[in-house]
Amino acid sequence: MDVIAEGLEFPEGPVVMEDGSVILVEIHGQRVTRCWDGGRKEVICVTGGGPNGAAYGPDGAIWLCNNGGLGATGPGSEGRIERVDLSSGKCERVFDACDGIPLSAPNDLVFDSSGRLWFTDLGTLFMDEGGLKGKEFGGIYTCLPDGSEITAINRGTLSYNGIGLSPDEKYAYVADTFSARVYRYDAKVEQQPHYVGTGIGNVAFDSLAVTAAGNICVATLFDAGITTFTPDGKVSKFDIAGDSSVTNIAFGGADMRDAYITLSETGRLVRVRWDEPGLKLAFNG
């Protein structure tokens, strides 16, 4: 396991760029950062709120889910979808509501080959001095990056987190954090989830990535690692010691077998050689 960068403030959302760098978000640092082999880092922009997931879009920009800062209140705490111009570092808000209803805590996102954006909303967490007190329900949404359309596929979900598309883009897969379950949606017509599988042991789920063969690799919390599901629900687990918050996985490299994984508790981005190639995303930077 190669350490690419460390000293990050709760990193998530790695985007593997064509030049070999990795762009990610630092939730607690409220910024977007580019990381290079050898430990070099550069800040692209400061977003405020809680940047939670990132994706490279058809327009050459980095798109963000911003949860507004979980438990935060007041101006700037609104959940939103943002666009970051890589040449200028300008961060602009594109969506913060759907059907007049404010977004709660957008979490993860993926583009399909047509340029349509799919994203999850975890639901705001309510915190006090004793820790987690409660939360809103979340959801799954789809939208167009020109700002002209946003649609709620399903509101009232428990805690949707990671999202990815099957290789043929027929299905959208989502990981539910607190139930440690994976569901799929028919990306064309259906609005009801279909159960895929449940994690092994005392775990919760975070983000996910899909392999070229269609397997779903889910970043796994607590008894941490990467949990992999076949499309028909068979499950296996790759354990990672030394960090209980394995939050994201993204694939890159010439053969797409370099797995970039965020270890958020210890603030590291690492790289592991995976046993199968990941799915090349529709718009790889």
SSE map:
Blueprint: E1 2-5, E2 11-16, E3 22-26, E4 31-35, E5 41-46, E6 51-56, E7 62-66, E8 80-84, E9 91-95, E10 97-98, E11 101-102, E12 106-111, E13 117-121, E14 125-128, E15 131-135, E16 138-143, E17 150-157, E18 160-165, E19 171-176, E20 181-186, E21 194-198, E22 203-210, E23 216-222, E24 225-229, E25 235-239, E26 246-252, E27 258-263, E28 268-273
Antiparallel strand pairs: 1-28, 2-3, 3-4, 4-5, 6-7, 7-8, 8-9, 10-11, 12-13, 13-16, 14-15, 16-17, 18-19, 19-20, 20-21, 22-23, 23-24, 24-25, 26-27, 27-28
The mean pLDDT is 95
CATH topology value? Neuraminidase
Percentage of residues in helical conformation: under 10%
Helix-strand pattern:
EEEEEEEEEEEEEEEEEEEEEEEEEEEE
Please mark out the parts with pLDDT under 50 across 5 or more consecutive residues, or reply none: none
What would you call the shape? globular
What would you call the structural class? mainly beta
* Terminal-residue CA separation: 24 Å
What is the C-alpha radius of gyration, as a whole number of Å? 17 Å
Under the CATH scheme, which class? Answer: Mainly Beta
Strand proportion: over 45%
Per DSSP, the total helix count is 0
The biggest sheet amounts to: 4 strands, antiparallel
Q: Record the strand order, biggest sheet.
A: 1-28-27-26
* Total strand segments: 28
Assign the CATH architecture: 6 Propeller
Total discrete domains = 1
CATH H-level superfamily title? TolB, C-terminal domain
